[in-house]
Amino acid sequence: MDSETIPQTKLVGALVGGISVLRYLSASSSPLGVTQVARDLNINPSTCFNLLRTLVHEGLVVFNPDTKTYQIGLGLVEIAHSALNGASLVRLVQPLLDKISVENQVTLTLWQKMQDDRVMLIANSGPGSVISINMNIGQRLPCFVGALGRCYAAFSGLSKQQLKSAYSKIRIENPAPFEEWYDSLADVRESKCAIDEGNFSQGFTTVSAPIFDAEDHPAMTISAVAVTAQLDNKKLEKIAEAVKQTALTVTAAIQGMPQKS
Q1: What's this model's pTM, rounded to 2 decimal places?
Q2: Is 186 helix (H, G, I), strand (E, B) or coil?
Q3: What domains are defined for the chain?
């Protein structure tokens, strides 16, 4: 076996136990004692104590000597913050984009909201065999174009008049009438997913879902681009669900809370 190959069946028990303890503590709203942690996780009390002591030593868990309880430490927060910063976030999201792209034979893109009411492409994924819109990393688009634009508009907090003014400045191949576009935003707010069929680019369907930051603002969008002629309702629904669930997963990681569906 290649030394770089990751074993699929043999796991390091101590590491699995330590991660289980971290996840359990992070889900608790109050500090916990070793006895409760060991009981709820079905870990030997002595083993649980040693795991907690190691995690305390590494700064990932904090021990209160007065109450004999443990809780998540700043060391874990620092690791999460570093992982979710800038390029690190892209590295974490990239495998998720690749998975949807391969499973559905579509092009995936990740867009970040910029301060000038534009979005910038920061990651993409697409099988070589699929017909796709060619987009380069760093490319920018107006904030409210296509399916991704509906995601940003739906959660922008802007008035109808403000949205109308911004929408009137967009130059795309086949823009939807404003009233139709505006009415669709209610569905986007409810489903947290938007679909653009041929408005942004004729012959292509785009499915987008917003990723929210810690303040619950739409900071990024994940978009899937497919040739409309190659889609049926079943495949479109499958792609939409995959994009939506991936956006929810990334949002939950950024906000530090369990994933919501």
Answers
A1: 0.68
A2: helix
A3: 13-79 (1.10.10.10), 84-255 (3.30.450.40)
